């Protein structure tokens, strides 16, 4: 049997790294700081606004910033190996800021910045063609629709999943 001799400072460092003395809120603080079991990918946002108007005017194009999308991966394992890898639960910010460029009249373009809500609960997951990893592609599509006042709102979100 081997004996190990530790100094008091080494024991304190070991206690800190194991979470001893941190109390019951250690796990909560860990999650608040972003050390949870979610995966993330920074996504380009493609806006689908085909056939829509903005406040009764023809839309030229719409731009959106990149967003961070989070998701989960679960592995179903058996004694004989991995049975399945599940990639699910895509979610991101609850709103996004868009720049809408539209025609004020036949020759004059105008741009407005709008914020629209995003509903990740109904996000559609399409399986991507290239399976070089398990996760989601770095592209999402947001389909817009006109609301009752002639403005724009989110219709649905499409994500592109890479899995078996």
Strand and helix map with partners:
Elements: H1 8-18, H2 26-32, E1 39-48, E2 53-54, E3 57-63, E4 67-78, E5 81-91, E6 95-103, E7 109-117, E8 124-127, E9 135-146, E10 152-162
Parallel strand pairs: 1-9, 8-10
Antiparallel strand pairs: 1-4, 2-3, 3-6, 4-5, 6-7, 9-10
Spatial strand order of the main sheet: 5-4-1-9-10-8
Largest beta-sheet characterization: 6 strands, mixed
Can you count the helices?
Answer: 2
Number of strands: 10
| Portion in helices | 10-25%
Low-confidence stretches: 22-35
Total domains: 2
* Mean residue pLDDT: 83
Distance between the termini: 48 Å
Helix and strand element order? HHEEEEEEEEEE
Judging from the principal axes of the Cα atoms, what is the shape? elongated
Quote the beta fraction: over 45%
- Give the C-alpha Rg: 24 Å
């Amino acid at each position: 049997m081997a004996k190990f001799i530790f100094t008091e400072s080494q024991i304190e460092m070991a206690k800190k790294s194991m979470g001893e003395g941190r109390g019951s809120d250690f796990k909560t603080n860990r999650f608040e700081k972003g050390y949870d079991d979610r995966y993330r990918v920074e996504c380009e946002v493609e806006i689908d606004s085909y056939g829509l108007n903005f406040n009764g005017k023809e839309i030229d194009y719409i731009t959106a910033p990149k967003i961070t999308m989070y998701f989960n991966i679960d592995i179903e394992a058996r004694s004989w190996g991995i049975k399945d890898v599940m990639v699910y639960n895509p979610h991101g910010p609850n709103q996004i800021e868009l720049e809408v460029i539209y025609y004020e009249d036949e020759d004059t373009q105008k741009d407005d910045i709008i914020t629209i809500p995003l509903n990740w609960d109904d996000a559609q997951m399409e399986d991507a063609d290239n399976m070089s990893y398990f996760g989601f592609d770095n592209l999402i599509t947001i389909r817009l629709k006109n609301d009752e006042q002639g403005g724009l709102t989110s219709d649905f979100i499409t994500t592109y999943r890479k899995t078996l």
